[in-house]
Amino acid sequence: VGDVLYCAGQIALVPCTMQLVSGGVCAEASISLRHVGRVLQAMSQKTALHHIITASCYVTDSKSIPVARSIWQKKLRECKKVEDSEMYHDDTAICGLLAVVVVSHLPRDAAIEWHVVAAVDDPLQRKHFAMKMLSEGFQIECESVESSSASCASISIRLSLISSSTSHLGLDGILHALVAMFKQAADKLSEDCSASPLSFRVFFKEHVFDAETLQKG
């Protein structure tokens, strides 16, 4: 859509057999992310993993989180090496925001799946912003990445509970702080970026919050 690419549902299927690759989560993580790169390149020839502006990685075991993050960094480094001689030199590309989420089940009993949004832009010219808010009982961290064309942006907000119990904190106050942080991040986008929120994804621990409470809030 315009200069934004949406790629979802990449798991580690072997193309000629359409069966999951063997070798466990490491092999699956590498192959499925390679699929992502090839889909992006097929859609736009000069687009690669470092053009991703936001990535959601789904795993079925919390032990797979470090594996997903490691493969993500490794593939991005490989992209940078390929591009180094052509454009990067000593500059650093601003890569997309990654969220790794534990879910109970994935299609074909896969161990990992990738869902990304990429921008056909210049990663060297992207804008990046980060801030943090510490309150009694919780901490909020926020990051945003804006494409160099200002056609799209990704904002990630993470809530960490410092207290073991949320009962005395009051969910309304926390949600108010989250919304305030989002508005602050949106206000910091450049004047050229007149984008409207396209989608919100909320990932949470079931034993801490429930979906109905969050929706009402």
Question: What can be said about this structure in brief?
Answer:
The chain has about 220 residues and is α+β, with helices and mostly antiparallel strands.
Mean pLDDT: 88
Task: Assign the CATH superfamily of the largest domain.
Answer: RutC-like
Radius of gyration: 18 Å
Backbone shape: globular
Work out the helicity level: 25-40%
GO molecular function: diphthine-ammonia ligase activity
InterPro entries: DPH6/MJ0570 (IPR030662), RutC-like_sf (IPR035959), YjgF/YER057c/UK114 (IPR006175)
Pfam families: Ribonuc_L-PSP
Protein name: DPH6 ligase
Can you walk through the features of this model?
The protein has 217 residues and is an alpha+beta fold. It has 2 domains: 124 residues, 60s Ribosomal Protein L30, Chain: A (2-Layer Sandwich); 71 residues, no CATH class. Strand 7 and strand 8 form a beta hairpin. The longest helix is centred in the middle third of the chain and has 24 residues. This is DPH6 ligase. One of its GO terms (molecular function) is diphthine-ammonia ligase activity.
